Amino acid sequence: MVGPEGGPERGDEVVLLGRQVECAELDRLVDAVRAGESRALVIHGPPGIGKSALLGHLTDSPGDLRVLRAVGIESEMELPFATLHQLCVPLVDRVENLPTPQRTALETVFGIRAGAPPDRFLVGMAVLSLLSDASQKRPLLCLVDDAHWMDRASAQVLGFVARRLLAESIALVFGARERAPDLLGLPDLEVTGLRGVAAHTLLESATHTRLDHDIRSRFVAETQGNPLALLELPRALSVTQLAGGFGLLNTDTVPGLIEQSFLRRIEDLPEQTRLLLLIAAADPVGDPALVWRAADRIGVTPEEALADGTDGLLSFDLRVTFRHPLVRSAAYRSATESERRSAHLALAEATDPRADPDRRAWHLASATAGPDESVAAELERSAGRAQARGGLAAAAAFLQRSVVLTVDTSRRAERALAAADVSLQAGDLDAARRFVDVADQNARSNFQRVRVHLVRSRITFAAGLNREAPPLLLTAAQRLERFDANLARETYLLAWGTSALVAADAVSLRAISQAMSELPRSTAAPRALDLVTEGYALLVTDGRAAAVPVLKRAAAALADLPARDLLKWGWVANGVSAAVWDDRAMRSMYGRAVDVVRAAGALTELPFCLASLGMATTWTGNFTGAAAIVDEADIVAAATGVPIAPHVKLRLGALRGRTADIEPLISATVEDAGASGQLMGVTVAQWSAAVLYNGLARYEQALAAAQTSAQIPELWVSVWVLPELVEAAVRVGDTKAAGGALEGLTDAAAPCDTDWAQGVLARCRALLSDGASADGLYSEAIERLARTRLRPELARTHLVYGEWLRRKRRRVEAREHLRTAYKMFAAIGMEAFAERARRELLASGESIRKHRLESSSGDELTPQEKQIALLVRDGFSNPEVGSRLFLSPRTVEWHLRKIFTKLSITSRRQLRDALPRSAYEPAPEQGFRR
Residue 459: which of 476, 480, 441 has the closest Cα? Predict the structure, then answer.
């Protein structure tokens, strides 16, 4: 609380006397920070409860802590990173110490440099690194009061930072009326009303008459011990009302009562003083010079406005300060609409259009009673600046207000389209729907109507993968053809990708593919986009044999795809390499996608790219690397709030063959994905089940799962499951099912001349052959797969060949292949398949001792510790590891000390010996780093 001249009142002392428990907790927090620990805390409670007094108690801590302060301001809630800027301004000289991507992101959001909008999570990493760097000299105490009024961008970033504090000497403490969504999950301290002696003492300090004990008790009870109410409400009551206990009968909420009290006090002030309070309330900056310049424009002078003071409601110092935020809202509410517009106009005229154009535009908008094209255009320009700083919510707010002020229908449609698009990017689907409706109503050209349809389609897709989005996107693409051929192709590709992901509507996928096949061919050399759309269309309309030549050219073109295109539609195009069974291109393409997304700071896209790379990595048998990618994807997904399907975990668990770990996940995925119509999830889960049960030699179950997966109209996994179906069907004697699966696999793999395709196809043909034909096919499969990095497939080929040889009583040859298979399975970590190979060896008459399975190295480490250790082993620096895992470099160092202790080593170099690469954990391929 702030006294009449801005200093602490005696009331603060009484409030804190009644907060001994809370103060003790805050003292422990300060002690922990001094000891090198990190703390985050949300102090929450209703208005006037004493949150600011508790933050003041922290500020009074001894001077060995550096204090950074910020205050959320209601009228700044639409300005991106306003609160964050307040907090970090004292550290701006340290920004140059940050890694380049983080430095660029922070300088961009603070308007120091122009650039593409940075991902807000990259900004969060930059702030975490900045605070960590600053805390190396002195512990940091970061206080944010009125956190419920933080702008959304600041709230997201500071919530992100607070969750990642670990080994830094930093405390981040928020004072808020309620626990905001972006601060949920943080440790909290609820502040309630004063009780007993403290409440009575505070009430007596605010009254000038002796109160009966029962009246005092009733007053305390009805105000719920709210300190500001105990101090403020007696001033609004007459001596008679106070002494008789009247005045609180039929009470409203306590905050409402307090604000009413402030309203009455404001109404009693002279007109010039009231107008001064109004201008200060309308100004979010708190700059005394700005307030006085604006006041002068409406004829308010310091001599008249301050002649009799402000009744303790407002004070001028380095900043203009209200006694309490409720005073600000009361001062604004007490004015007429005309007075408010005049105040905003005065503030707009007093604001430097070069130094602060966005606040000026917002004031102009608030000063405008009706439509005004010049102000609407200013807001549109402000939206562009906000978007460039990464403030999507602010850009949406500026554009939405711009629409309201626009009369011209065509311009109104354009601005509404822009508002809908940015609202969609900001995650506000309801606002996006409202403004796309406005754009639809005001559209005057066919091109505008087509773009309305496109945005509406994207909103539908963003609302969840469903069967409605693909036909909407198809219609949008068809209508775009006459206006923008390139955008039409991109939209066709997105429609195709969404339809393929839903995997529930073969009719829709065929319709999209047919439309794509009818697109005019380019007379110039075809681009990657042209080749991908043509190849995908052929894949559905004419089959793989017709599509493969085009898709191979597309895969080559995609190797040099510009980053901007990769970010827009690369997630669809990256499936090209898998469609032509090119395992090396698949790993390279997914690895590059991860690198590009990281470099762009597009962290909301990163979990999906990591999932694709993780799936590609499982094919090589590099389970350690795949698990590390899964861990990183989980960390990013948790940090960004982006849900990610457990496809890689399913695949990895199935190959490892640990039933206790994987069977519950398979069942849960089938149930959840099936209920929500996400049939891709069902496909992957059933494919994983087929792999698991083939490894366990539970062939009936493998056959059922494989048949379910193969029946879903999907173009990748439903093909990859066919070898599982062939193997399971052969083992149970269902030659018809095996033959049908082999026919489907032949259609999919025969046109592809890669060793992956031809090796797997030869193995499956061998399973359905006999005699010399089978011998030759098994040998061909081994020869081809040995030229790839697909170690699990090679090991499985040795296994089935050895099983066939044993059944043909060629035991010496069988043992050779079974031993090779067993050693490979054990080294890779494929437990179920290793046991299956061991049983076959025993059946062949060979005594076999169980090998220690791979993946035991570093098992004593936690998943995060192992992730850090592997990255450091592979040559990443602490800042690089921190950037990947959303940790500060100091936290990475803290984890490394624990890792060294657990592994009994003393240096980073020794990690190579402590966590060695096995023969079946290949090093990252050239072109990307894991």
Answer: 476
